[in-house]
Amino acid sequence: MSVEKNNIDQEKSNSGERSNLSEQQENKGVSRRQALKYIGYGAGGLLVGGGAGFYGYRRSLQVSSSEAAKVRNAKFVVAGGSIGGLTVAARLLRAVPGADITIIEPREEHHYQPGYTLVGAGVYNRSDVIFDQESLFFSDMKWVKDYVEAFEPDRNRVITRSGEAIDYDYLVVGLGVECNLDSVENLREALNTDYVANIYDLSSSEKYRKLADDFEGGNAVFTYPPGYVKCGGAPQKITWLSEDLWRDKGMRDKVDVHFYTDRNTIFPTVPRVDEAVKPLIEARGINNYYNQVLRAIDISTRTAIFEETTENGTVREVRQQYDLLHPMPRFQTPKPLREGPLTREGIGGQLSVDRETLQHTQYPNIFGVGDNAATGAAKTAATIRKQAPVVAGNMIDLVLGYEPSNKYDGASGCPLLTRYGRCMMFEFDFEGNLINEWIYRPTQETRVWWDFKVHGLKRLYRHVMMNGYV
Ligand SMILES: Cc1cc2nc3c(=O)[nH]c(=O)nc-3n(C[C@H](O)[C@H](O)[C@H](O)COP(=O)(O)OP(=O)(O)OC[C@H]3O[C@@H](n4cnc5c(N)ncnc54)[C@H](O)[C@@H]3O)c2cc1C
């Protein structure tokens, strides 16, 4: 059977990573041998844990040859060729080689977004997070290099920006979410000034690294937006890593670190992690402000303007001068989704799906995966690792005439980088309860999970998930 168009060249071309990572190991006194040992532990743990989690819903991905023939007659279209769309497509092809899969994806360069935090922290370079999009496709996936302009679910087709109509029997929607730069007044302009950057864009992340490195002191202000957030831990991670950087440079007393969040605590998604992390962060002298929404930026006076909801429910304006600002706008889904027929009232433009089967609530032949799906789960690649086999399995169920039998349990994961060389790694469910605790020691800052985040997760993403081994 055909196999993926190999990624070895890509790995080689990422030589920047090698020099960068060895530098990192040298700086922190970790030998290559130790790092590999940790990676081995980590990978073993994840595979055992992951395997246990996945085992229950692999059954309908096993198909007989007559069933596979039926699946090959169906036309699958995937809107969005990133980690969500590609992991589903690869999983489907692992189950049924030769399945008819078309992927609509406009970009020629794929970004490993979980690496953006490490770019902002100076651990990765730009080249460490870029893959040639074409290298990610299996050779029997068809690539339409275009945008989805409109969904026409009543006619089982999508229209691309160039006007092509693409028919499908089954559609997977994996368009992700994007920063809404218009949700904060003057944000676009502020991002072009010398004091403002954020890690949710690769170039801005590189800029942030330089700002943090060159920072001579003053008010360093970090914000956290309302609504759903892509990787809800990343704004905290960059705050804490920056504080650690300045401490390491011996200039901590020259910096006031301020973290403004619209939530009422630091890490509300998982209460036990919040309890564990809060005293650690407070002990480091970071000023946390709750129930604060960044509304505007006054560039001329370098002031971030917040709306604070007070305990009695009134709203008041809070102004914070900054010498370095890491602002976070709200998120939104891409236009064809948020303004099209596949969303509904009250879910912020996300794809309306059943949170367990991931099937569209109105159109049974449409499924959602990843950040754009309204499941209430965390918007992370770790979530997709659990969702992709559910989507692939349920589409096969439908082709074969069954009801969807696979269920997503809400599981997600987070490598919470608390300082250089330390990470709290944990998995959690829909309700924010910790799961697989025996693998992670989730409420402790450990070296092993830092190494796994830096050296292992990108490989899991690229070689395990995108190759359909989930
Ligand atoms: C700073 C940062 C740190 C993160 N850290 C972590 C982490 O530590 N761990 C973790 O698990 N996750 C992390 N994530 C989250 C992770 O990157 C996302 O959850 C993941 O990329 C979501 O995948 P997706 O396929 O749903 O969407 P995306 O990866 O966002 O991809 C969406 C795709 O859809 C395409 N698209 C958009 N509009 C259209 C259109 N109209 N037509 C066709 N195609 C379109 C885009 O080109 C893109 O390829 C982080 C993200 C960021 C930004």
What does this structure look like?
By secondary structure, the chain is of the alpha/beta class. The chain folds into 2 domains: 291 residues, FAD/NAD(P)-binding domain (3-Layer(bba) Sandwich); 151 residues, FAD/NAD(P)-binding domain. 34% of the residues lie in helices and 21% in strands. The protein is built from 14 helices and 22 strands. It has a 5-stranded parallel beta sheet with strand order 5-2-1-9-19, with helices on one face. It has a 4-stranded parallel beta sheet with strand order 13-12-11-17, covered by helices on one side. The N terminus is likely disordered. Bound molecules: flavin-adenine dinucleotide. Flavin-adenine dinucleotide binds next to helix 5, helix 6 and helix 12.
Task: Give the cofactors and ligands.
Answer: flavin-adenine dinucleotide
As residue ranges, the low-confidence spans are 1-33, 47-59
Class inferred from helices and paired strands: alpha/beta
| Mean pLDDT value | 90
Count of helix runs? 14
Q: Tell me the fraction of residues in β-strands, as a range.
A: 15-25%
Q: State the domain count.
A: 2
The helicity comes to: 25-40%
The CATH homologous superfamily of the largest domain is called: FAD/NAD(P)-binding domain
Q: What overall form do the CA principal axes indicate? A: globular
Terminus-to-terminus distance:
19 Å
Q: Biggest β-sheet, characterized?
A: 5 strands, parallel
CATH topology of the largest domain: FAD/NAD(P)-binding domain
Strand order of the largest sheet: 5-2-1-9-19
CATH class of the largest domain: Alpha Beta
- Number of DSSP-assigned strands: 22
Question: How big is the Rg?
Answer: 22 Å
| Reported CATH architecture of the largest domain | 3-Layer(bba) Sandwich
